[in-house]
Amino acid sequence: MWPHKVLENNSARALLNVEDYHQRAKEKLDKMTYDFYSNGSDDQLTLIDNQESFHRIKLRPKILIDVSSHKTENSLNCQTQLLHSTTTISFPCIIAPTALHRLAHREHGELATVRAAVACSTIMCVSTAASTRMELIAEEHQQQIKTNYPHSTSQLWFQLYVLKNRPYTKRLIERAQNSGYKALVLTVDLCVVGNRECDDRNQFSLPNGIQAENMIDDDETSDFAKNYRAPSEDDALSWKDLDWIRSITSLPLILKGIIHPDDARKALRYSVQGIIVSNHGGRQLDTCISAIDALPHIIDAIHTENSQIDVYIDGGIRRGTDILKALALGAKAVLIGRPVLWGLAVDGEQGVRKVLDILKKEFRLAMMLCGCQTIDHIKKNNLLIINYNHYQSNL
After folding, report:
1. Which candidate in 280, 297, 377, 390 is catalytic?
2. Is 280 a catalytic residue?
3. Strand ranges (DSSP E) for 246-378?
4. pTM of the model
5. Mean per-residue pLDDT for 176-184?
């Protein structure tokens, strides 16, 4: 007779990958917060497809290539240069802007996340809807570099929502520049908030002591800051407003939320420094094309214009192989949002660091198994078969 088998306790399970952190975070977070972070709009088809689209892309590795230079943990082979080589990160993965980190880790929130960004030498893109003021995040970033990680190449970028209150929007931009943020990431796919039914069912609200701190100084935005009701985003925002933003700041401008190749071409005419191929993590227009499926068309449009603009992508990245696939299709780097929140919920700063370390380790392993000695070889090695053979990437 077989001995009685003890069922595995999820809370005792080793945390080996992003999904492990997701499941542990789901156990720790209350339902309202977990649903707020995890769910998308309408039937969540785009949310699901963001991940499944990566699964449909198959890798075709090359063999008998010396990849021994990857063997040390401190290998520089994964280092990535961005914005015309003015920025260097340890591997092509950036912390995406996500709201209200103190819902995941009440004590430290975004301060824990920024500490992990510095430790891992990557960029943290701070949300307008952060639960910690942008100035405090910047101070912590600078202090961590000065005190603990003097060789870190981490930077802060600021994600901006343009509000109907333009003077207040102008102050947000100026605050970011004055605090030492190195780029402005303009979200362009939120003329109106998507239909997030889960938040309506849960009657989502902020607990006492947590609010969107960057927006608390203005009477017109205080309801959003304190209660997270729909912000007064400017549904009249258009291309001409890029000139207005340019008149305020000299920071590099990156547009987040580009899906259509026509918009990528138009962005080039406005001399932006980067675009992020993104459908807002499946939280805006449901049935929108997945980010990774949109990426090749964006890259083709940009190559047609002979542009060297940086192209990034977010949405659905959960494995190091996903990062490699995005780079093989022409992205400069990826951004991750929910995986960072899962790490933060599980173990604060250490959880975020572990998630980043896992993805870096997986990415390096994928590079080695595909015969890529350097980042450049990912694009040169013709590694991808998309949709099971009917389309091959020649990037």
Report:
1. 280
2. yes
3. 253-258, 274-277, 310-314, 333-336
4. 0.93
5. 98
